[in-house]
Write a structure and sequence with these properties.
- By secondary structure, the chain is of the alpha+beta class.
- It has two domains: about 160 residues, 2-Layer Sandwich (Beta-Lactamase); about 180 residues, Hypothetical protein af1432, CATH 1.10.3210.
- Helices cover about 55% and strands about 10% of the residues.
- It is built from 14 helices and six strands.
- It has a six-stranded antiparallel β-sheet.
- α1 runs antiparallel to α2, α2 runs antiparallel to α5 and α7 crosses α12.
- The longest helix has about 45 residues.
């Protein structure tokens, strides 16, 4: 954050930040900005840090400012962490002396190198989530000054903001967990009706994610590709079993029912706002680069990039897997078919990467299955 020189300008910058809090920010990014804003409003304090509980019970630095070293290397055992247990800030004299007494080895070395020995006064307060202290918010000063009651109140407010954000992040993670369970239940329900597609969604997801990483998709897009792959065929839940499991060639009317599954699938998930990002994958995974696919006859760049990747993964797994009406083809045959469909069924750029990536993933999947 680039702060203005005047006191009013600094205050305005801090308040602008607080009015633009975003849950999609990372914990590290949020806490860093929160520290910077707090330091603007508490004169004489020129350093600060935030530590949070890790999965193993230890504590790690998630944000800091004014220190020289990368404090992310430091892990503090739970029995040696110094965090006030109450909701009110406390003032700590020369906190580095606590470090010297209770920490050792690499952690202490990093802290000293970072400049913790410069700290004379610290305002510390716990970060509270659902009644439990899960972290600490610290403002440090290299001056031997006494913080005012106003300073303590400001730090308490900022720690409260940190607690609210951490709580919301926890709820967000829980919601994602519920969402994952719902999606996986959908997949299992779909596979229970068609034994020939057991594992199909997981394999498509593995192919698609590996391909997307090779192409250079962002982590956010790769996450959408994974979950879109997992539920791309969800519309088949509405296809009658006598059609889904028919061991012979489908009639034109039966094939038309099958062709409706992408639209039906989109209808099934559109009521869930958290699945908005994968609707195009579900609806359009049978589109073709030449515009002869369905249901919307999208062509070329009209097809979203993530859909092109999932379409490739879906087609490859369909070709190499056994179905009720035919045996899967070999890996070399599938690669030849992909090359043959370059610029027709598939995006040429995706084909180029797929020919390099898919064979290795295929071997990982099937070698593992055979060996297990």
């Amino acid at each position: 954050m680039e702060f203005k020189e005047t006191a009013s300008g600094l205050l305005n910058e801090a308040l602008d930040f607080l009015s633009d809090l975003r849950l999609r920010m990372s914990v590290e990014g949020f806490m860093k900005k929160l520290l910077q804003a707090a330091l603007v409003l508490v004169p004489g304090f020129d350093m600060g840090s935030v530590i949070m509980e890790d999965k193993d019970g230890s504590y790690r630095y998630v944000a800091w400012t004014g220190f020289k070293e990368d404090l992310s290397q430091v892990k503090i055992p739970p029995d040696r962490v110094l965090i006030p247990k109450g909701r009110n800030p406390v003032v700590i004299e020369r906190i580095y002396e606590w470090d010297n007494e209770f920490l050792s080895g690499e952690e202490l070395k990093v802290l000293k190198s970072a400049g913790t020995n410069r700290i004379r006064k610290t305002i510390a307060v716990g970060i509270n989530v659902e009644g439990r202290i899960v972290g600490g918010f610290f403002l440090d000063s290299s001056l031997d000054i006494e913080p005012t009651e106003g300073d303590l109140k400001i730090v308490k407010v900022f720690a409260r903001i940190a607690s609210i954000f951490a709580t919301m992040k926890l709820y967000q993670e829980r919601e994602r967990g519920y969402q994952r369970e719902i999606i996986l239940a959908m997949v299992k329900a779909m596979e229970a009706r068609d034994p020939y597609t057991v594992g199909h969604s997981e394999r498509v997801a593995k192919y698609a994610v590996t391909l997307a990483k090779e192409i250079g998709f962002s982590e956010k897009d790769i996450d959408r590709i994974f979950w879109g792959s997992m539920v791309h065929d969800i519309g088949k839940l509405a296809v009658p079993e006598h059609i889904l499991l028919k061991p012979s060639r489908l009639s034109p009317s039966e094939f038309e029912i099958i062709r409706r599954h992408p639209v039906v699938g989109e209808e099934m998930i559109k009521e869930y706002p958290w699945l908005e990002g994968i609707r195009s994958i579900v609806r359009n995974h049978h589109e073709r680069w030449d515009g002869k696919g369905y249901p919307d006859k999208l062509k070329g760049d009209q097809i979203p990039p993530e859909v092109r990747v999932v379409s490739m993964a879906d087609a490859f797994d369909a070709m190499t897997s056994d179905r009720a009406y035919r045996k899967g083809i070999s890996l070399p045959e599938a690669l030849r078919e992909i090359k043959k469909q370059e610029g027709k069924q598939f995006d040429p750029d995706v084909v180029k990467e797929a020919l390099n990536v898919l064979p290795e993933v295929y071997k990982e999947i099937y070698i593992f299955q055979i060996s297990s």
